[in-house]
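ARCHIVE CARD
CATEGORY: sequence design from structure
SOURCE FIELD: tokenized fold
FIELD CONTENT:
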């Protein structure tokens, strides 16, 4: 038979021994409840993140921008994105065209063509002037009509054959293989910037342009959506026209990446989800892209502004070349080839 426990006053360890033993028995139970609570919170967080990822992936607008073809550049180290700004007016009302100062041109062109490279030597942001005079490769349109290779401005590739022909033209003229494609339109820029609460940027000189509607003072300021669109579209009033616009576009993209990944955005669900929703509505990507690849794209865009990042424009031999048809264009210099080879091979830039 087991002996009954001694009363507290007769316990050789003293009257406090029994309460201490009871507390010791309660501690494992409290620890289990705490661990269980943490597990529930982690599961809820994982569910929210997983649900957000599935929701966002399902909303991505995709296009067959990248396709295999004979003679395509080999897959190289690092990752390359082709970022394109479309000036399509499709879906805009007359009032929107007036408010955004975009006119009513029914054509589809691109004012922005940028290669973003992620590699071992830091991110590289390389702008390609829209008036670059290059060889557009042979292609077959949606009606089955074959078009021979010919020389033209690079943005004519997008106007003629859309994203697939532009990607192929960039690849064949630079030798850089594109892994992903990202396209944004007029209203996309406006909506994304407004969802972020504006984008801070510093301008060395005031910008006033009647065509784009820009009227921005010099100095540091926060641009709203319309002002951001006016900035990236302005070229006629700038000293070097499209080349000056490229510099403003690069500065804006860096600022946008920094604002999008700032704690004020990523840790604030009331700003993060409107930003994600606006971005998903604004962007068109290649079929292999996902929210993960877009996240990597945003991280590299933010990193370009750091000490290891580089922003540049394709080196030019002539800024005032006259084509056989009488149009004004720009010609790449011979040093551009070394730059393209460095990006394709993920080597330090020359």
């Amino acid at each position: 038979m087991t002996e009954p426990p001694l009363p507290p006053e007769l316990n050789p360890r003293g009257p406090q021994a029994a309460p201490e033993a009871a507390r010791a028995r309660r501690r494992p139970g409290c620890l289990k409840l705490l661990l269980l609570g943490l597990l529930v919170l982690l599961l809820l967080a994982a569910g929210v993140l997983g649900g957000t990822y599935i929701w966002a992936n399902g909303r991505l607008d995709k296009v067959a921008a990248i396709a295999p073809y004979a003679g395509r550049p080999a897959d190289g180290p690092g990752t390359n994105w082709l970022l394109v700004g479309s000036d399509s007016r499709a879906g805009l009302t007359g009032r929107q065209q007036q408010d955004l100062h975009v006119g009513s041109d029914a054509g589809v062109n691109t004012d922005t063509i940028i290669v973003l490279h992620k590699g071992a030597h830091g991110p590289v942001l390389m702008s390609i002037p829209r008036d670059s005079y290059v060889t557009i490769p042979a292609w077959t349109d949606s009606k089955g009509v074959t078009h021979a290779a010919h020389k033209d401005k690079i943005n004519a590739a997008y106007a003629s054959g859309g994203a697939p022909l532009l990607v192929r033209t960039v690849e064949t003229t630079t030798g850089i293989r594109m892994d992903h494609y990202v396209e944004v339109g007029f209203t996309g820029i406006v909506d994304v910037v407004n969802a972020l609460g504006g984008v801070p940027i510093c301008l060395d000189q005031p910008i006033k342009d009647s065509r784009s509607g820009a009227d921005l003072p010099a100095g540091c300021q926060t641009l709203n959506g319309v002002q951001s669109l006016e900035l990236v579209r302005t070229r006629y009033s700038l000293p070097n026209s499209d080349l000056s616009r490229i510099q403003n576009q690069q500065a804006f993209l860096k600022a946008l990446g920094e604002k999008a990944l700032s704690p004020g955005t990523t840790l604030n669900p009331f700003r993060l989800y409107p930003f994600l929703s606006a971005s998903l509505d604004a962007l068109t990507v290649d079929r292999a892209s996902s929210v993960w690849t877009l996240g990597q794209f945003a991280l590299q865009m933010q990193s370009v502004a750091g000490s290891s990042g580089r922003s540049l424009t394709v080196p030019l031999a002539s800024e005032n070349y006259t084509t056989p048809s009488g149009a004004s264009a720009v010609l790449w210099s011979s040093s551009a080839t070394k730059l393209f080879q460095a990006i394709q091979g993920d080597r330090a830039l020359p």
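CARD ANNOTATION: The two ends are 91 Å apart (CA to CA). The first strand starts at residue 61 and ends at 63.
SHELF: design records, drawer C
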